[in-house]
Amino acid sequence: MNICSTKYLRDSGYSALHPLLFTLIPLAFAEDILENSDIPSYNTAYGYLTRFGIPEAERIRKAEEQMIKNPDSRIAGGSPSAPGQFPYQAGLISDIIGLSGNGVCGGSLLSARSVVTAAHCWFDGINRAWRFTVVLGSVTLFHGGTRIQTTFVRTHPSWFPLLIRNDVAVIDLLQAVQFSDHELTNQQHLSHVTLTVISNEICSIAFPSVLQNSNICTSGRGGASTCRGDSGGPLVAEVAKRPILIGIVSFGITFGCEIGYPAAYARVTSFLDFINGEIVN
């Protein structure tokens, strides 16, 4: 069974399946490094939009513009996504109340009018978005594809940013989209990585105070992981050649996705009642 996560314009190198081991910086030491901040090092969801979402959106925008100017340029690391390989992948560009920059997240198309993402992509405990531009059928985030703007977003009623509980939201699309292998360009700016799911017992060593049964984790061994800007994106298992959404990117370690820490996701099976109740068919 293959486990895969997708991402836009990721710079770090990826490796395939690894043993269920990882190297950890002690959390007590890590938290001390966060100078002038009360946000724990493991909580990348709280304040996400200004801490990660806006800077990552700018990085992706500039990288896309550079690739348009120089089509022969390549992204270091990552595996390029083939046209139509991940037709369920959604890119999200957020407009944020009181801020001029855009945030960036990922999502998964569940029905012709519904996308699931992380709640912190809409409200991160400090900042709140007021509109999403949902990008479908494109391997670039700021150029091409089907682009639908919407303000209809429902976060889980028990979403609690400080403890990263119930980090799930469903987006309503104002127009229905077609499920198909979208026609994509040859400029492969969306990449994917194969990851290893690890037990929550192992993952809790990295995140002892926040990890819940409603989370699922992947190993970060070898620098293979989700990273800044991947929030809300899909963790998919291939079962009988069918993609099954099992996780929604939720949180990781502040100090970078390449240092070997696991990544944590909202476990989709724990939120099926909420998701199914909010899907627009």
TrEMBL record:
Listed GO biological process terms: proteolysis
Keyword Cytoplasm: no
One function term, GO molecular function aspect: serine-type endopeptidase activity
InterPro entries: Peptidase_S1_PA, Peptidase_S1_PA_chymotrypsin, Peptidase_S1A, Trypsin_dom, TRYPSIN_HIS, TRYPSIN_SER
Keywords on record: Disulfide bond, Hydrolase, Protease, Serine protease
Classification via CDD domains: Tryp_SPc
PANTHER family: ACROSIN-RELATED, HYALIN
Peptidase S1 domain sequence ranges: 75-280
SMART domains assigned to the protein according to its UniProt record, in alphabetical order: Tryp_SPc
Protein known as: Peptidase S1 domain-containing protein
Source organism of the structure: Leptidea sinapis
Cross-referenced Gene3D superfamilies: Trypsin-like serine proteases
Taxonomy, superkingdom: Eukaryota
